[in-house]
Amino acid sequence: MNLRTRTLVYAAVAFVLLLLPAALSPVLGGDRLATHLAERNEPPSWSHPFGTDWLGRDMFARSMKGLALSLGVGLTAALASGFIAGALGLMAATLGKTADRVITWLIDLFLSVPHLVLLLLIAFVTGGGAKGVIIAVAVTHWPSLARLIRAETLQLKSSEFILVSRHIGRSNWWIARRHLLPLLWPQFIVGTLLLFPHAILHEAAITFLGMGLSPHQPAIGIILSESMRYLSTGMWWLAFFPGLCLVVLVRSFDVLAGSVHALVDPSRSQE
């Protein structure tokens, strides 16, 4: 296989792994998440691949539910953060020096504050829960992508074809819509995809620390937080399998983003 074919295969495998929790979550409900005290604290087996917890709940079903929930939260937060980054990056590069200074100052401000502290503070102020996590992640993850889009836009503005369009009287809006946006679209897609793993990991971190999703929801952060109390008793499967699933999910996002970048990059797309 050539490089393009291998990239397509990697992207397809990563996409399937990402869809798996969302596809299995509706099927693995009901009785598998119910309390079965007679089956509590069972190690991994054929009937319970990830074992059971201290209430007899199937850990495979809980893990898939948690990953599906994390996917939904991460997707919403990453899209919102990507939209903020794209808008502010374009504004900084096209609305003059005053707007550029203000937005650059905002980027530096958000990057200078410890990330987890800012996430916890915003989640606490917005009331926690799914809404608080989404707002916290969306508001804190845009600066790096905004800086990238600003730099790309400033480089494109000095291109010859844009100078010609400006010389013949085209407006800034026309240039942005016809020239800048089509060329910035690949960076926006890949940048937003790369925000997904950060969003999922930080959602799990906030939830693990008790400022995220409700304890009644089978989120990965809640599962890992609850499992800490039972690791010393030898119930290793309560943390190992959910943590492994989280790592695989995050790695799949990285592979998918890298594959998409290789496919849309003009210098690499025909290899």
TrEMBL record:
Annotated transmembrane regions: 67-90, 102-126, 180-201, 234-253
Domain ABC transmembrane type-1: 67-257
Pfam families per the UniProt record, alphabetical: BPD_transp_1
Chief location: membrane
Localisation: Cell membrane
Membrane topology, from the record: Multi-pass membrane protein
InterPro entries: BP-dependent_transpt_permease, MetI-like, MetI-like_sf
Keyword Iron part of the UniProt annotation: no
Keywords, alphabetical: Cell membrane, Membrane, Transmembrane, Transmembrane helix, Transport
Identification of the protein by name: ABC transporter permease
Species name: Paenibacillus xanthanilyticus
Family: Belongs to the binding-protein-dependent transport system permease family.
